[in-house]
């Protein structure tokens, strides 16, 4: 194999990720030329509607997958949190890279911490997961949608459209943008549970190409794969898309897996939670087991009602 083409979105963060993987492959396989196929995804084009109303996070991956299936790329680099739990025929999720810090971060030009926000402060996020957790803790806050790329979101904060916003720490750190924000507070995993796959990269490939699979597997981190597979199994079993507020995060520490899960209404009510710690050697089916427990307790009906409630004023415009 002389040349490998990587499909990637064109956002600053996606390009950082793609170039990072490109450099790793070139270091391990110096005989292979690695090039990027840069694609503007539908999720990057439609910025005036919540993701759940334009088809969910799959709209960040579909165009890249189409390019691969058309023979225009052999491999795609995704933020794993954007990768649906199902794979199109002919493609496979071959590797998950080592996960870094999964935390969300509070950002403000006026207030030092989330706790210092005054009554009725305006907080920006389009994530139903974050909205649910914020309003559970601070029902007095006014949560306002926040779309656009990272720089656009930070500009809106600086202009005073929001008292604070919540973003993923990892993206801001990779793009060296944290230094420009007067007040930042990294939120603990107990304070703000991340989404499935946060802070890991998913490497998707064309099925049946053994050399590409070998290259992809050279990027794999076994511990991260175990943790993120637990998260993906949970989401798959419970059938949760991004039109319902769901948070789930598995962490490996000292031979034990701690799995945190929360779901409920986007207004912070009707919350179901689980926090389970097991030996890592017994954790393979943990995501499915926790999902079954929550389903038995009524999670499917709750998710259906949460989906209806989350966008009841916008559903007629659904695309």
Structural summary, described in words:
This protein is of the alpha/beta class and 319 residues long. It has ten helices and 13 strands. It has a five-stranded mixed beta sheet, sandwiched between helices. The protein has a five-stranded mixed beta sheet with strand order 7-6-8-5-9, sandwiched between helices. A three-stranded antiparallel beta sheet has the order 11-12-13, sandwiched between helices. β1, α1 and β2 form a beta-alpha-beta unit. α8 packs parallel to α9. The longest helix has 17 residues, at 12-28. Residues 53-57 and 314-319 have low confidence and may be disordered.
Summarize the structure.
The protein contains ten helices and 13 strands. The protein is α/β, with parallel strands linked by helices.
Q: Could you give the order of the helices and strands?
A: EHEHHEEEEHEHEHEEHHEEEHH
Number of domains: 3
By DSSP (H or I, 4+ residues per run), the number of helices equals: 10
Strand runs, count: 13
What class, by secondary structure content?
A: alpha/beta
- Main sheet summary: 5 strands, mixed
Query: Uncertain regions: pLDDT < 50 for 5+ in a row?
Result: 53-57, 314-319
CATH architecture of the largest domain: 3-Layer(aba) Sandwich
- How far apart are the termini? 41 Å
Radius of gyration: 19 Å
The 3D shape can be described as globular
Could you tell me the CATH topology label of the largest domain: D-Maltodextrin-Binding Protein, domain 2
CATH class of the largest domain: Alpha Beta
Mean pLDDT: 91
Superfamily at the CATH H level of the largest domain?
A: Periplasmic binding protein-like II
């Amino acid at each position: 194999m002389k040349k490998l083409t990587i499909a990637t979105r064109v956002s600053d963060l996606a390009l950082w990720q793609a170039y990072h993987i490109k450099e790793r492959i070139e270091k391990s396989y110096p005989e292979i030329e690695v090039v990027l196929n840069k694609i503007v995804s539908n999720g990057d084009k439609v910025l005036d509607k919540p993701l759940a109303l334009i088809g969910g996070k799959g709209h960040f991956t579909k165009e890249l997958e189409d390019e691969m299936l058309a023979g225009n790329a052999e491999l795609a680099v995704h933020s794993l949190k954007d990768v649906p739990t199902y794979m199109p025929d002919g493609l496979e999720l071959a590797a998950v890279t080592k996960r870094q810090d999964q935390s969300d971060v509070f950002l403000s030009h006026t207030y030092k911490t989330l706790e210092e926000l005054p009554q009725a402060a305006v907080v920006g996020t389009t994530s139903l997961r974050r909205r649910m957790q914020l309003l559970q803790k601070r029902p007095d806050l006014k949560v306002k949608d926040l779309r656009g790329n990272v720089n656009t979101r930070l500009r809106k904060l600086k202009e005073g459209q929001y008292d604070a916003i919540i973003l993923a720490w990892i993206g801001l750190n990779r793009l060296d943008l944290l230094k420009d924000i007067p007040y930042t507070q990294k939120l603990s995993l107990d304070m703000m549970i991340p989404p499935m796959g946060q802070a890991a990269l998913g490497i998707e490939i064309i099925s049946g190409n053994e050399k590409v699979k070998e290259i992809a597997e050279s990027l794999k981190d076994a511990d991260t794969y175990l943790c993120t597979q637990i998260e993906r199994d949970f989401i798959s079993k419970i059938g949760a898309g991004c039109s319902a507020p769901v948070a789930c995060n598995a962490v490996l520490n000292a031979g034990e897996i701690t799995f945190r899960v929360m779901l409920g209404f986007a207004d912070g009510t009707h919350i179901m939670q689980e926090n389970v710690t097991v030996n890592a050697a017994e954790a393979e089916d943990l995501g499915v087991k926790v999902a079954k427990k929550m389903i038995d307790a009524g999670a499917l009906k709750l998710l259906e009602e949460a989906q209806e409630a989350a966008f009841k004023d916008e559903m007629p415009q659904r695309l």
